[in-house]
Fold this protein.
Amino acid sequence: MSAAAMTFAQRGGIGAEPTAPQAPELVEAARDVLLQGLGLLFRLEDQKYAQKAGEPFQASIGGHFRHVLEHFQCLLEGLPTGTVNYDARRRNPRIENEVTFASIAACDVMRALKKWDARTVERACKTATSVAYHSESPALLESNIGRELAYCVAHAIHHYAIIRLIGSEVGVAVPKEFGYAPSTLKHKSSVSAD
């Protein structure tokens, strides 16, 4: 059977609907990191979620989770216009203080990401973000949606590591792998296997 005939048969033949490309691994990674955060939220009450740790943190688990989530929201909001503005975060106090509200917001982001495919992550975009302390306007940089999604995932893991530290200060145990980059976990696994 020819390759074209094989493809035709696999798609179901005449009248079959074309299949959308599988969600890229990067989208799965984003959903996984958000699910990791939700797993922690499901174990918390509002009081512990919003409790600020003392010095040097002066921050809460909720504050860091809000910060993570709002970067994903900025990416989603920038998709239609092609400009992702990380400075336009809403800084919503409900996400920072209410576990249920934060959980719903995280689920909304995951639901939106579920619709993404390879074409979505390949789209070009611009990012607006303040990087200079003495500049009045944000830098506008060329990028693509996949690159920005990778940034949001890495940024989330970085903040999860801080949440791990805050958790130890406020009496919240986090899962063993929480706040570790996949490359770190792979390295730890290979070292322990030796």
Summary: Confidence is low (pLDDT under 50) at residues 1-21.
